[in-house]
Amino acid sequence: MTEFFTPGSSDSSAEESSSISYDIAIIGAGPAGMSAAITASRASVSVVVLDDKPRSGGQIYRNVDASPLPDAEVLGPDYIKGAELTTRFRRCNAHHIRGVTVWHVGDNGEILFSDNGTTKRLTARQIIVATGAMERPFPIPGWHLPGVMSAGSAQVMLKSDGLVRDEAIFAGTGPLLYLIVAQYLRLGGKVKALIDTTPKQNYLHSMTELSGAMRAPGMLIKGVGLLNEIRKSGTKIVSFAEDLKILGEEQAEGLSYTRGGKEYSLPASHIFLHQGVIPNLNMTQALGLEHDWCKQQLCWKPKLNRWGQSSKSHIAVAGDSGGIIGADSAAAMGRIVALNQLVNLGVISALEGESEAADDLTFVASQQRFRRFIDRLYRPLDQQRIPESPGTVVCRCEERTVADLKKGFELGGREPNQLKSQTRCGMGPCQGRMCGHTVSELLANWRNQPVADVGYYRLRSPMRLVTLAELSQFTDVTPKAKKTEEVN
């Protein structure tokens, strides 16, 4: 067990004690980041949490303690229970810096971030990355048109502003898609159709993981309940849809699909797409952490041990940013990672860390077995991850199509960074966030090699756009005195 807690020597500069350094810096205030902060702040260490949102909660618990809805309970019990976690987080001793964007993390523990048009800096001996997940790109013809958004964006509108788009089409696969449709219907929204792309064969193939799924029967019942709720509403549901295309030239006008070899179409000016979530990689890649291609979840994710320890001794990754595990497991991993870093700091012993983390480690292992069932059942279609049509846009920032990338490949762009140089694909404001996985899989197909051999973009700081005006206003942030009372 001791190897999970032993820091390496390559990053020793990050562990040097400093009177102006925080002991632990946490980037992100979702379930993982909040839980890590609560756990770490109980010890005699200084903790800072950097969050790009004005309120804690991340995406899953967005605005849970300040919902614009008259009755936020319509969003479901899994959302409402986040209020307890956000309350505990607000009362803990962590220094919460909100509405800021981290754009550099150094091997010496330096963190630079933008705050209201200025650049600020702090240092930390240990760092936890808890930046969460993002929706998997859905590169089908027309997905770049106005009126097409991710289903997660539809949920953001619900949680942030209480807004719905009537007569929208929701298309794709996965439990989050069904949850968002159900939430729309509970708020009185009218959904034109749910176009489900879950392949028929997935139901059979997922049976090989049924034993793991039965370890979480409540999750299965919840999923079936959501689908029944949608059916009872009278919403049109189309199963086993393939070959999705957005209709329209300048604006989304509808969606076409095939089912059973026949083509169908539905008119709509708002279309929400979803085919699962993947780790938000920009920060972990820019930090130079080792990453692996996960065949189970069809995505890149940082290489971690069971304590969330990365390939750099002073950096750990918690929650969905280390691999998709769900909100409850993310919170558990936040606690596990925080205990690991307390051991690294010498605040508690390895034996104490093992003892305190035992229940959470068991819970996460159990949930990972359930996750294998979910990943198998809702494995997205190859045709909707790896576009074939030459005119399909891959890089939305630079408007680069499959044809553009294929030309760059033929000119020598055999790996993602070479292809970026040839085509500018991945050079836009999102820094490849929306095209990186698609590029890796396209190149793997064209090279006839595994995705793991192709690799991902090489990312560097700054991780976000930074203006010269921001750099001209530079201040340091140092630990604050602890609160006199702490609520566990």
Automatic annotation (TrEMBL):
This protein's record includes keyword Iron: no
Spell out the InterPro entries in the cross-references: BFD-like_2Fe2S-bd_dom_sf, FAD/NAD-bd_sf, FAD/NAD-binding_dom, Metab_Enz_Cyan_OpOx_G3PDH, Opine_Oxase_asu/HCN_bsu, SoxA_A3
Q: Which GO terms describe its molecular function?
A: oxidoreductase activity
Q: Which Gene3D superfamilies match?
A: BFD-like [2Fe-2S]-binding domain (1.10.10.1100), FAD/NAD(P)-binding domain (3.50.50.60)
What region holds the FAD/NAD(P)-binding domain?
22-143
Top-rank taxon: Bacteria
Q: Name one Pfam family in it.
A: SO_alpha_A3
CDD domains referenced in this protein's UniProt entry, alphabetically: GlpA-like_Fer2_BFD-like (cd19946)
The UniProt keywords, alphabetically, are: Oxidoreductase
Q: Does the keyword Oxidoreductase apply?
A: yes
Residue ranges annotated for the SoxA A3 domain, each copy included: 398-471
Q: What is this protein called?
A: FAD-binding protein
Q: Which organism is it from?
A: Amphritea balenae
